[in-house]
Write a structure and sequence with these properties.
Blueprint: H1 7-10, E1 13-15, E2 18-20, E3 24-26, H2 41-52, E4 57-64, E5 76-77, H3 83-95, E6 100-106, E7 122-123, E8 137-138, H4 141-160, E9 165-170, H5 175-180, H6 195-198, H7 200-213, E10 218-224, H8 236-249, E11 254-258, H9 280-287, E12 294-296, H10 303-311, E13 317-319, H11 321-326, H12 330-335, E14 389-393, H13 397-408, E15 412-417, H14 424-429, H15 439-450, E16 454-458, H16 464-470, E17 474-477, E18 481-482, E19 490-494, E20 498-499, H17 501-505, E21 515-520, H18 525-536, E22 540-544, H19 560-569, E23 573-575, E24 578-585, E25 587-592, E26 598-601, E27 606-610, E28 614-615, H20 618-625, E29 630-632, H21 642-655
Parallel strand pairs: 3-4, 3-13, 4-5, 4-6, 6-9, 7-8, 9-10, 10-11, 11-12, 12-13, 14-15, 14-17, 15-16, 17-29, 19-24, 20-27, 21-22, 21-27, 22-23
Antiparallel strand pairs: 1-2, 18-28, 24-25, 25-26
Helix pairs in contact: 2-3, 4-7, 8-9, 13-15, 13-21
């Protein structure tokens, strides 16, 4: 692909007295990589990979500036001088490739957690944290001064660590934003009330930071462009005025525009149901009001879109964070005219939302090496020794990745797929409303495999006899999982069709819509997708679950709020806390999960059972019994998510 269309994206950008080599930004995000609250070798490898891939500017994971803020277990203590050594290691690794790197200085205020510090949260006013409902302490003047001094101290450590400057957080999870917004600032002193007063804390922070770092270093501001709470919060026009005043009254070198607030965290880093670039217009509004460079944000993962925003003068640089997690070499590929080879960011939020009770470390659903760059298994691929004939059975994500890696190593690979197309059940999942981007993962894998010397056999049901007749050196079984009946529900007397999610998504339901009841045993995006598919095809949909609420596992991917909004708009009915027991005729009978009161739902025309699938182990077991050197990967090991399927496909392709 001709790279001339990307010239605006690849051109240098002046940020104060420094120059970033291009306008692609790897923005701040939580990783959970820290030990002892410092940047470590895992961070170094992670950021080095993006710098080596050609990114222009890296903004590190947030460093908290004061002991009153400990929002998650593995947070970086930016106020501790021990942070300097980690900064130095990252700066050396990143500067080697020409990129600039900044610290991200933050204080979570009332959106933090007292779990780790055992101290009260600090906030401008007594507004409880939305998720925990914890009431913060209203900050006294001495507290405000201490945090301002903390910003300055943390900024000095960043410069001592060899970084090119700092970014101040006034976006999501930010005390600075909480002071700026009437949604959270109800003070009646010099820090509250009129806009000039609400700006005071931000001004003091910026001025203290600038004084600490000097005129040669970059000072940027990550600013919320829309809290999506128009009854009291910052609206786009308010953000533009805030940006104008702050850039006029203080020495800022850029503004990065984000969105979302205490009630709308799902709009800071939206999932599949918001279109790519959904928040980019906010950058355009602020750019029209200021003279410093402005960064756009909001699921911008396509370099064509990114370049277009620059051409249209909507922004001066573009944050492409999730795109760079999925493919660190994105800038290099763009520059070389190979944009079509970029491994896509799916935007499913499945492996890069970190603030969960499980305390996971960051990775990527479509790139298993993300966050594990310093692990030996993601080093250079070992050549096949010797090259051999390998059969891969199953053309879903696990099988495609296994075939890709084995072929790259030099093996002679033949890939068999029972269907007439590749992609497996992931293509089926992509048929659900709003989840079309899931197919991009297997689109990319298929394109990679077809570009390699891999023989592809479609429409072939592989038997043990077929395998034995070819006598391969090894077989990789990746045939996926199988549906199973919904557990513990007696349907012997049912007089309605009973189907599973796969049947729904291929349209194997009655042509005349009526009332559909979904029995949801999982609580995630499977039932959500099935419910929306049926509603979009004219069905009246009711979801029944024993859980406390419908879709309880959607919180992990930030999808719960938008799912409830869409379900309400589509008339989908929620019936939580019901234990389904039997179906007789067209009636579902059950009991309340707690008090065991009988419940009946009448008038069913369709019953959909959403439950965990089981692994398809038949072929693998037969091959092992026959003495074949067989491996397996993906859902035929245990039905899970796309990320595990791709990771296991990678591992077996590397091992075989």
């Amino acid at each position: 692909m001709n790279s001339t269309m990307f010239e605006p994206l690849l051109s240098p950008l002046h940020l104060g007295r420094k120059i970033t080599p291009n306008r692609i930004v790897f923005a701040t995000h939580q990783t959970n990589f820290a030990t002892h609250h410092r940047f470590e070798q895992r961070h170094v490898a992670y950021y080095r990979a993006r710098a080596a891939g050609g990114v222009g500017l890296i903004v590190l994971e947030g460093s908290v500036v004061h002991p009153s803020d400990w929002p998650y277990e593995y947070v970086i203590f930016g106020y501790d001088e021990a942070v300097v050594a980690g900064y130095q290691q990252i700066a050396e690794a990143v500067h080697r490739y020409g990129a600039l790197v900044l610290a991200h200085l933050t204080h979570s205020g009332g959106q933090g957690s007292s779990h780790y510090s055992q101290l009260p949260l600090w906030a401008p006013s007594a507004v409880p944290e939305v998720n925990s409902r914890e009431m913060p302490k209203v900050m006294e003047i001495e507290d405000i001064a201490a945090v301002v001094a903390g910003f300055a101290r943390a900024a000095r450590f960043a410069i001592q660590g060899g970084l090119d400057g700092v970014e101040i957080n006034a976006g999501q999870d930010s005390l600075v934003r909480q002071f700026l917004s009437p949604l959270t600032n109800m003070r009646d002193d010099e820090y509250g009330g009129a806009l000039d007063n609400r700006l005071r804390f931000a001004r003091e922070v910026i001025q203290a930071v600038r004084q600490a770092v000097g005129s040669e270093s970059i000072v940027g501001l990550r600013l919320c462009g829309d809290e999506h709470a128009p009854w009291a919060g910052i609206k786009p026009e308010d953000a533009a005025e805030i940006a104008r005043l702050l850039t006029t009254e203080t020495h800022l070198d850029y503004i990065s525009v984000t969105s979302g607030s205490i009630f709308t965290g799902h709009l800071t880093r939206a999932g599949l149901y918001m279109p790519p670039g959904y928040a980019a217009h906010l950058a355009g509004t602020i750019k029209a009001a200021v003279t410093v460079p402005v960064f756009a944000q909001g699921s911008i993962v396509d370099p064509r879109m990114a370049a277009g925003l620059l051409v249209e003068q909507q922004a001066d640089a573009v944050e492409m964070t999730r795109a760079l997690i999925a493919d660190p070499e994105l800038p290099q590929k763009v520059r070389a005219g190979r944009a079509d080879e970029i491994r896509p960011a799916i935007l499913s939020n499945q492996d890069n939302i970190i603030g969960l009770v499980q305390n996971p470390r960051l990775s990527c659903v479509n790139n298993p090496a993300a966050g594990y760059e310093n692990e030996l298994e993601f080093g250079p691929l070992p050549p096949a020794a010797p090259p051999a004939q390998i059969m891969v059975i199953g053309g879903g994500p696990a099988g495609l990745e296994a075939a890709r890696i084995a072929a790259l190593r030099g093996h002679q690979v033949t890939l068999y797929e029972q269907r007439d197309h590749l992609g497996g059940t992931l293509r089926l999942a992509a048929a659900a409303p709003g989840r079309q981007r899931l197919a991009l993962a297997v689109d990319w894998l298929e394109a990679q495999v077809r570009a390699l010397p891999v023989q592809i056999q479609l429409g072939v049901t592989v038997t043990p006899q077929l395998v034995l007749s070819h006598a391969p050196a090894a077989v990789i079984v990746a045939v996926g999982g199988m549906p199973r009946p919904y557990p513990d529900v007696d349907v012997r007397a049912a007089e309605v069709p009973i189907v599973n999610p796969r049947q729904v998504l291929v349209g194997d339901v009655p042509t005349t819509p009526g009332m559909a009841v979904i029995l949801d045993h999982i609580g995630d995006y499977v039932a959500m997708g099935v419910a929306e598919w049926l509603a979009d095809h004219g069905w009246q949909v009711t979801i029944v679950t024993a859980d406390m609420f419908v879709g309880q596992r959607l919180t992990a991917s930030l999808e719960l709020t938008p799912w409830n909004q869409r379900a309400c708009a589509k008339g989908i009915v929620f019936r939580p806390q019901i234990d389904a027991e039997r179906v007789a005729g067209r009636t579902l009978f059950g009991v309340d999960h707690f008090d065991r009161t009988p419940i009946a739902i009448e008038g069913l025309d369709l019953l959909v059972g959403v439950t965990y699938e089981t692994p398809d182990e038949t072929l693998y077991g037969a091959l092992k019994q026959a003495g074949v050197r067989a491996y397996r990967a993906g859902d035929c090991v245990a039905p899970r998510t796309m990320s595990q399927a791709i990771l296991e496909g990678y591992r077996v392709g590397r091992t075989v």
